[in-house]
Amino acid sequence: MSGLTELDQIARAARGDRAAQTALVNRNMPIIYRVAYRMLQDQAEAEDVTQETFLRAWKVLPDWQPKAKFSTWACTVALNLCRDRLRKKKPVLMDELPERVDPALRPEEALASQQAQAGLAAKIAQLPERQREALTLCALEGMTNIEAADAMSVSVRALESLLARARRSLRASLQAETVGETG
Q1: Of 115, 164, 124, 152, nearest in space to 40 by CA
Q2: pLDDT tens per residue, range 71-91
Q3: How far apart are CA 139 and CA 108, in angstroms?
Q4: Mind listing the pLDDT tens digit for each residue in 104-148?
Q5: How far apart are CA 110 and CA 113, in angstroms?
Q6: pLDDT surpassing 90 at residue 31
Q7: I need a labelling partner for 153 at 20 to 30 A (CA). Which of 42, 128, 133, 178 fits?
Q8: More confident residue, 1 or 77
Q9: From the CA atom positions of the chain, what is the Rg in Å?
Q10: With contact defined as beta carbons under 8 Å apart, do 128 and 97 qualify?
Q11: Phi-psi region for residue 65, left (φ > 0), alpha (ψ -120 to 50) or beta?
Q12: At what angle do helices 18-40 and 70-88 cross, to 10 degrees?
């Protein structure tokens, strides 16, 4: 399947080719899950959104007209599903971050690193929804501004504004925390 273009894989997947469907899932599931997890901060919810995204993809693939990359379209679907879930419940901060501890760090450094990651994740979770989406797609998932704007159904200029506001808010929050610790 690796010799096929994405459009060829989509066409084959639309006709029920399991290998093409598997290739699309394997290539796109990690980003869909990460976006959903960062938005919902709940592993089970993120898994449900990821699964629902691909169920919707299989339904529309036969009629799909590529206006963007499949991953961009799938992120749009996932973001919409996340928005629906967030509207239905109050936002909840993550209890703990997945472990990403550098094995070369000493235990006290590892703890400090984990605490810093948890603090940053909590601050990101407190951002307004659209700012959090923009930051997640661009800064954390590495999408270009054009891809992220497409996924969010906004102009590139609007996305850049959301990113600037998100970064300003995070910077102010981090500075306030630093001042609070030293003062």
Answers
A1: 124
A2: 888 999 999 999 999 888 754
A3: 28
A4: 666 666 666 666 666 777 888 888 999 998 988 888 888 899 999
A5: 5
A6: yes
A7: 42
A8: 77
A9: 18
A10: no
A11: beta
A12: 40
Tokens 């054009």, residue located: 146
Sign, CA dihedral 42-45-47-50, equals negative
At 60, which amino acid appears? V
Scanning the chain, the segments in alpha helix (DSSP H) are 6-14, 18-40, 43-60, 70-88, 107-125, 129-135, 145-152, 156-182
Residue 134 buriedness (CB in 10 A; 0-12 / 13-18 / 19+): buried
Closest alpha carbon to 57 in 80, 45, 73, 39: 73
What's the distance, CA 167 to chain centroid?
A: 17
How far CA 45 is from CA of 2, 7, 110, 158, in Å, comes to 31, 30, 28, 28
